[in-house]
């Protein structure tokens, strides 16, 4: 039996926190657990990704792959159709609809539980963890504390990096750190904008800028390689699947070559090269874990940019809209490095160096938008809890600065290399361990595995208590 009233504190109420809560509720006996979700936002299931916005930003994964449970692949579609939305499996729906789906499924999972035993949402931020005799004590920013037998860090993506080049315009309205606030630029006199980064966030930002009035007439996107995301497939093209038995994590160069060869085989057979990424996804954790630190660093240095644009693709519609802006002369993507930002009258002078060039170039723009994406380097994370955990030695960054070191059972690994008892991590920093851990198809499986670990741990503790 499980220890009655065991408290699990989940820090973060975005996708990971809600998905884990639903799994725990569905698999545990009523009253066996007390789940506390500590999340400062008013709505659970929203986070940065699925919050209600002033623009219908689309999901980057088709509706048919977004269900909370991989064993029920049509669950998300059934929900949206029940809301009167005529959607198909290949549609890319607005992000806020997914947040509504998460909240609806959480409510359903709690429906048959007495109200006093339902998951509790505490609107606060955790500042610090302290080990106590009976588990953990969480210090919150409202001055209170929360006891927990188990703690799950589900804090989600970090904000973009604050680059040193931003310093001359930091705190100015000319610098937009949060690209999701671009709607605030409506009715302002903005003629030209620099979007720093060229990935999925940049695509969303460019389309939001194109929708405001008066219309922005010039949008520059600048990144090291100047690569736009590839397009998601518009239709399924069955073809002979290539053998992937040769894929092993012994050499980054060999791994990259084998993936390219497999993509060519699929294309030659009349299929879609994107299918290779779907086939290899389940094997990525074992492939990545088998690579040495030297080979991982080599992959990140030489192949990461190309992996990201091919693996993390944009829906065909938004990408086509960006290409239309490009043909109209409104949008242009550049490969190069930002050198300097300098206030000049009411504008910003941007000095940058094109990739492979010796001489710099310059633009004058009205706004600079940080579209570099989440900063995975935990040492630069502004969250007081993260900094406290680092200072206390409860967590440690991984060697490639992709996140933190996490044990196979989800426990965080301390500074001295040992797993920390009853403190688990769930979220995108698992990329350090498994490489791919940022999309729903991976994160829902991580949530399912962690729920099993927590529930089995409870059974073990319960037996020890009964016999002790």
What features would you describe in this structure?
The protein has helices at residues 15-27, 75-82, 95-110, 200-211, 252-268, 275-280, 284-290, 293-302, 304-311, 316-327, 384-391, 431-434, 440-467; strands spanning 6-11, 33-38, 120-122, 126-132, 135-140, 145-148, 150-153, 175-176, 192-196, 218-223, 331-344, 347-354, 361-365, 367-370, 411-413, 419-425. Strand 5 and strand 6 form a beta hairpin. The chain is an alpha/beta fold and 468 residues long. Helix 1 (15-27) packs across helix 13 (440-467) and helix 4 crosses helix 10 (316-327). The chain has a 7-stranded mixed sheet. It folds into 3 domains: 6-57 and 94-159 and 376-467, FAD/NAD(P)-binding domain, CATH 3.50.50; 164-230 and 313-370, FAD/NAD(P)-binding domain, CATH 3.50.50; 252-305, no CATH class. Mean pLDDT is 91; it is low at 460-468.
């Amino acid at each position: 039996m499980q220890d009655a009233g065991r408290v699990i504190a989940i820090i973060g109420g975005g996708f990971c926190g809600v998905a884990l809560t639903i799994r725990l509720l569905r698999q545990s006996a009523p009253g066996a657990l007390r789940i506390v979700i500590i999340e400062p936002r008013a709505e659970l299931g929203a986070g940065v990704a699925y919050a209600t916005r002033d623009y219908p930003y689309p999901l980057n994964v088709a509706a048919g792959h977004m269900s909370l449970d991989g064993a029920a692949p049509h669950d998300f579609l059934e929900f949206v159709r029940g809301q009167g939305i005529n959607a198909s499996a290949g549609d890319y729906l607005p992000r806020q609809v997914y947040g509504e789906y998460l909240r609806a499924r959480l409510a359903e999972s709690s429906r048959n539980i007495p109200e006093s035993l339902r998951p509790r949402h505490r609107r606060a931020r955790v500042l610090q963890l302290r080990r106590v005799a009976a588990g953990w004590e969480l210090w919150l920013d409202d001055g209170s504390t929360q006891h927990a037998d188990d703690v799950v860090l589900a804090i989600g993506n970090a904000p973009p990096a604050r680059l040193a080049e931003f310093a001359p315009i930091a705190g100015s309205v000319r610098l937009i750190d949060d690209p999701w606030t671009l709607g605030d630029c409506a009715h302002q006199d903005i003629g030209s904008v620099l979007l720093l980064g060229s990935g999925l966030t940049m695509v969303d930002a460019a389309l939001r800028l194109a929708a405001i009035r008066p219309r922005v007439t010039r949008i520059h996107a600048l990144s090291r390689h100047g690569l736009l995301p590839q397009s998601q497939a518009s239709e399924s093209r069955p073809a002979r699947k290539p053998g992937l038995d040769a894929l092993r994590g012994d050499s980054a160069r060999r791994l990259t070559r084998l993936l390219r060869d497999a993509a060519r085989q699929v294309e030659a057979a009349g299929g879609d090269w994107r299918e290779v990424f779907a086939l290899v996804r389940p094997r990525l954790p074992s492939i990545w874990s088998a690579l040495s630190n030297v080979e991982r660093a080599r992959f990140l240095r030489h192949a990461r940019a190309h992996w990201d644009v091919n693996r993390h693709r944009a829906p065909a519609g938004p990408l086509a809209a960006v290409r239309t802006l490009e043909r109209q002369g409104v949008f242009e993507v550049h490969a190069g490095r930002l050198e300097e930002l300098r206030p000049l009258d009411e504008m910003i002078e941007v000095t940058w160096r094109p990739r492979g060039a010796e001489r710099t170039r310059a633009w004058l723009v009205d706004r600079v938008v940080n579209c570099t994406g989440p900063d995975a380097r935990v040492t630069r994370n502004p969250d007081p809890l993260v900094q406290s955990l680092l200072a206390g030695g409860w967590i440690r960054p991984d060697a490639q600065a992709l996140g933190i070191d996490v044990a196979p059972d989800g426990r965080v690994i301390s500074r001295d290399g040992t797993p920390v008892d009853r403190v688990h991590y769930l979220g995108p920093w698992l990329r350090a361990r498994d490489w791919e851990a940022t999309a729903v198809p991976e994160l829902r499986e991580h949530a399912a595995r962690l729920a099993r670990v927590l529930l089995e741990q409870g059974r073990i503790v319960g037996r020890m208590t009964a016999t002790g």
